[in-house]
Every structure is written in structure tokens, then in C-alpha cells.
Specification:
four-stranded parallel β-sheet; Lambda_DNA-bd_dom_sf (chains A, B); six-stranded parallel β-sheet; alpha/beta; Peripla_BP_I (chains A, B); homodimer; DNA-binding; LacI family gluconate utilization system Gnt-I transcriptional repressor (chains A, B); 12 strands; elongated; transcription regulation (chains A, B); transcription (chains A, B)
DNA sequence: ATGAAAGCGCTAACAG
DNA sequence: CTGTTAGCGCTTTCAT
């Protein structure tokens, strides 16, 4: 195996200097058409591929952005990722991705690792970073976006929506529909889920008429199966009184719905169900499930755009961007 | 903003030479405990992060592996990715990930881009690469794994299972259950889906008794909603005769199942449904859906292990690894 | 166990 | 428009 061709090899074949080849690759318009064609042929002929490490070192531009999500298996972050990848393609950037498994400590390590790639921007999920992580991020001097939720003290830029308000609204929706014995089914209990729960409690506390609430949570990760188990649990705790459940996401809601069939409960007559995130399945099951929709793909895209526009500028702290949410009312409530 | 600290800065603070700091970071055991502690403190104090580009350039080891999947939105590849990420963590590697949207041409471009990172290994999905892509890959000299399906002429290493055989088996399962008017619902129609369809046709052709088949396919991407539409289509084409459908994946199968409720068809009495991939929902809907399971997470892990063990060795072409599949029989058939 | 010198492959800055 | 020179920050190699 011959070693990989480098710029000089291409230059030799094309009969030009190395820097000209470099220009053809980065700024083709700065090279005469004649030389450019010669170089392009040479590149293709010997299958030259530019050495990113050398290029990044010399130019101080890595062409990379770093992204950390809490979970690869949660389809919610998938939507965000797709938005990120679609935007990144326009800008000819690469993504280096980390999955921190909802752990701030893992996230801290990942941040250090990913920063070593000299990313030109950093996208984080949520606002729950360790102090040392914040220090590293800050001192890196690159633009940073925190995604998904709104923060009072963002590291840099912030785009998301209020999970607390969404929790309030969806709970009020149930109360307005006449349900009075409300259950909350929560899994994982990350910060966003906690905010949804806080919204649930707030709505109940503020409600002018007597009503009952039952909160069942677990730190296990969400799954459809778990939704069924939590429904069992809330029915046990409420001695069968619970007449509506707010599930902290649609996986749980689907599981709860499937479980009602086994328990011979009618939805929404015996019990109402609502979820969160508005997954495709929620609209298509029978009965369809009320949920909370948010523009995840667009959030991902916009995060990249924010990074790119912020790249040169001074750090004028922009205010958080609230992308909002929408309650999608369906047959289950 | 002061510029980022480099090795020399750390060295100065710790009162040692740059190379010693480098050793502490890469081969701590080669440095005396006294100096090591000093250096570690200095690193933490000034928040030093090693410049990956420089490190990669000097050492000729990028610590990166490249991965291309056909779709970020398909949960199937998510499982594989999780396997990859979990294995990669053990080896202290970074992943650069590309989504080629099922397009060999996009894949070719991605391969060129990702190769510029000098990855130490490359994981590809499927066997449908362009000639130029294969050339680039081959000449890069790095170990390569093709995932998901088995290939007659792999570029290098290969791990997957036979989608053709799985298609044959699941079709025979339906035939054995007494169904004789079989429909195939296919979306996307990538190479693996086509192999499943080929298996379906083979099983029908080989069956000793009279039976009927209806094939409905589209190049649209899969979704639950589409499953409902395709079920409508196959019922129209078969004039209501179709008594079993093999859906090329579980999304379609779920959509088909939900549609049967709207059409007032009983499953499996009026019509049997089976899917592919064995998603969690398939086990939990009512009735539960027969599907084909495969060890996706493990495939991802094993792909990384293969790359790592192959790293040093000569290219002794290993035979493809068949991870097999399993038909999970459930209530829907 | 530690250090000095050289150079990885590329591009910025300057020169022509 | 094209080329020359220097150096990005690190690790390799060789010396002590």
C-alpha cells in the first residue's frame, strides 16, 4: 500500500505548486480556469482527499460543530438531530455527536472530548451542565446553543419552549374537560419532565374547584411498556378513582392507552389520556391521543443557523428564543 | 479573550517540557508520579484541552471512526448507532456520522468528506456503493465494515443477515397458518426491502398449493400512516380477497393494523399482519404483531470491534458474519 | 524518566 | 493569478 497522496503529489501531477492545489480546493474562483481544470483532474485521478487535521491546524477552522443529546434512543432528539444535519449540510460542516445518557457528568466528559476537536460551535440539550463544563465551554470562546428548554441564565444562546407552561396548559385542558381526579405519569424525570410536573401541580393548585391529583414517577427510562405499568400504579394509588392521566411523553401515553384495553377501561369515557411530543403514532391509534407538539426539526436547524451567524460577532447576549408549543386536542380527552 | 492554552502553556505552569505534558495525556505510566500530578493539576487549572487536529496530524491517528447510515429518522438505525456508540466509548474513539438518505450518490460524497477526517475505520450500511466510492474506500487502506445485509463481494468486512431468507421464512409462516391470498406491502424499496420482497415471491413460487399474491409498493418513505394507505391499496387490488399481509417493516404493519380497525376487519381472523424489525410497539398493540427480530445493537457493537481488531492486521479477507434473525410469532398471525 | 529537535500536511501572509 | 516561506500544536525519534 502506497501511502496516501498529499497536496504535493497532486501538485506534481498537475504541474503546479501545492498552494495552488489548496486554492482549487478551498477558493476555486481565485485560480485560473486552465490550472483549475488541470488540478481537478489530478485530484480525481489519484483520488486525493485533503487531510482534515492538517487543514484544520493550519487554518484554525475545523469545520466541525459539536452536539450533545441526552439519548440516542429517544425519537424526540432524532427530530432535532435531523434538523441539525440538514442545516449543517448547507454550511459544509461536520457534526461530532455525543450521547450523554441524561448524565451531567458524562456530559462534562463529552464536552471536554468534543472541545478537543476545536468545534466552531456547540449545541447542548437542556440547561443542566456542571460548573466545570460551563467553565470549559465559556473559555472556549465559541458560540453555544442550549436547546429544548428556556433558561434564565443561558451559557450563550438559547432556543426552546417552556415545559412548565405546557404542563400547566395541558392540565387545564383536562380540568376544563371536566376531569377532576388527575394522574401524572412520569419517567426518567429529567429537568424537562420535572418542569412539566411542576406545571401540572401549579394548574391543580390554582384551580378554583375541588380536585384530586396522583403523581406516579420513576427514574427508569420511558418506554411503551412502562406506560402500562405506570397506569396500573396510578389506578392502584387512586383506588380506581383516577379519571385522567397526563403522561410526560407519548411513549408512556401509548402504553397507558394499550393498557386501558386490557383493563377494560373506555377512553375517554372512563379515563382520559394525554401525552407529550406528538409522535406520529399518537395521531393514528384508536382513540387518537391528545398531545403537545413542538417544532423540533426547526429547533435543530435554527440552532445551527444561530451558531453560524454568531460565529464572527461579539458575544452580545441574545435573548432566549421561544419557539412555543401547541396542544393538539384529540379523541382521548 | 486570551487564545486557547496549548501544551507549552501547561508545560510552563507545571515547570516541565511540552513533551512531558504530552506523555501525561497519552501515556501517563511513562511519567514519574511527581511530575504527573503537577502536570495534571496544571491541566485542570488552566482548563487545557488538547488540540485534536495537531495531535492527529503528528501522530497519524485521528481517533475517529466514520459511520454512514441511510436515515436518521428510521429507528432501526438508531439501535445500530447505539451499539456503535457504546463500543466506541470503550475504545476512546469519536464517531463522525453521515446520513445519506438512502442515496448512493449522497453516500459517495459523504464518504469523500468523511475520509478527509482520516478515520481509523469506516462503517457503512448495506452494499449499494458507487464504484468511485469503493475505489476511495479501498485506497484509503482502513478497515471497513458493511452492515445489515450480507454481501457476495464485500469491500472488506461484512456483518448482517439474509433479508431474502427472512422474507422466505415469514411468508412460509403465513402459508403454514393457512393463509393463501398474501399481500406484500413495501415502502422505500431499498435493497434490503427488495430482498425481503424477493423472498416473499420465492416462497410463493415454491409453495405446492395454489395461492395468490398481491404486491403493493411505493418509493415513499415508510410511516405508520403509509401502512394504512397501503393496506387500503392491497385490499382494493385484491378486491377484498387478501387475507394476510407481509409488511416490509413494523411501521407499515402498525399502520395496517390501525387501519383494519377503521375497516372493521378482525385480525387475525379476517386478515393476518406481520411486520419486520420487531419494534417495541409491535409487542404491545392489540393484537400483538408477528415480526422479524435481529440483533441490531449487537451488530453495531460488533462492527466497531471488528474494525479495532482489524486495525493492525493484514487484510486477510474475513468471511461475512451472519448474525441471523428470529421470527417472533404473535397474535396477529 | 525526561528533554531537544524535527516534521506531520496544510494554509496564512506576503511577494512577485 | 501564482509561488515562497513560515508555522499551526502536537508527537516522533533520538539523545541523555
Amino acid at each position: 500500500m502506497n501511502k496516501k497522496p498529499n497536496l504535493k503529489d497532486v501538485a506534481k501531477v498537475a504541474g503546479v505548486s501545492a498552494i495552488t492545489v489548496s486554492r482549487v480546493l478551498s477558493n476555486p474562483e481565485k485560480v485560473s480556469e486552465k490550472l483549475r481544470t488541470k488540478v481537478e483532474q489530478a485530484v480525481h485521478e489519484i483520488g486525493y482527499i485533503r487531510n482534515h487535521a492538517a487543514s484544520a491546524l493550519a487554518s484554525r477552522r475545523s469545520g466541525v460543530i459539536a452536539v450533545i443529546i441526552p439519548s440516542l434512543s429517544n425519537i424526540v432528539f432524532n427530530d432535532v438531530l435531523q434538523g441539525i444535519y440538514s442545516a449543517v449540510k448547507q454550511h459544509h460542516l461536520q457534526v461530532v455527536l455525543g450521547d450523554c445518557h441524561y448524565s451531567p457528568l458524562e456530559e462534562e466528559k463529552l464536552i471536554a472530548t468534543l472541545l478537543s476537536q476545536s468545534p466552531e460551535g456547540f449545541i447542548l440539550t437542556g440547561t443542566d451542565q456542571t460548573d466545570y463544563a460551563r467553565k470549559l465551554l465559556q473559555q472556549s470562546g465559541i458560540p453555544i446553543v442550549q436547546l429544548m428548554e428556556l433558561s434564565d441564565c443561558p451559557i450563550d444562546m438559547n432556543i426552546g419552549f417552556s415545559h412548565f407552561n405546557a404542563g400547566v396548559d395541558i392540565t387545564n385542558h383536562l380540568l376544563q374537560k371536566g376531569y377532576r381526579k388527575l394522574g401524572f405519569l412520569g419517567a426518567r424525570m429529567d429537568t424537562r419532565t420535572q418542569q412539566r410536573l411542576a406545571g401540572f401541580k401549579k394548574a391543580i393548585a390554582d384551580f378554583k374547584q375541588p380536585c384530586q391529583s396522583y403523581v406516579v414517577t420513576t427514574t427508569q427510562s420511558s418506554s411503551i411498556r412502562l406506560g402500562g405499568q405506570l397506569l396500573q400504579a396510578v389506578m392502584a394509588e387512586s383506588q380506581g378513582q383516577c379519571d385522567a392521566v397526563f403522561c410526560c411523553n407519548d411513549d408512556l401515553a401509548l402504553g397507558a392507552l394499550f393498557e386501558t384495553k386490557r383493563m377494560n377501561l373506555k377512553v375517554p369515557a372512563d379515563i382520559a389520556i394525554c401525552g407529550f411530543n406528538d409522535l406520529e403514532a399518537s395521531a393514528l391509534v384508536e382513540p387518537s391521543i391528545t398531545s403537545v407538539a413542538s417544532p423540533r426539526f426547526e429547533m435543530g436547524q435554527q440552532a445551527v443557523e444561530l451558531l453560524m451567524t454568531a460565529a464572527g460577532e461579539d458575544k452580545t447576549h441574545k435573548p432566549p428564543i421561544d419557539v412555543g408549543y401547541r396542544i393538539v386536542e384529540r379523541a382521548s380527552t
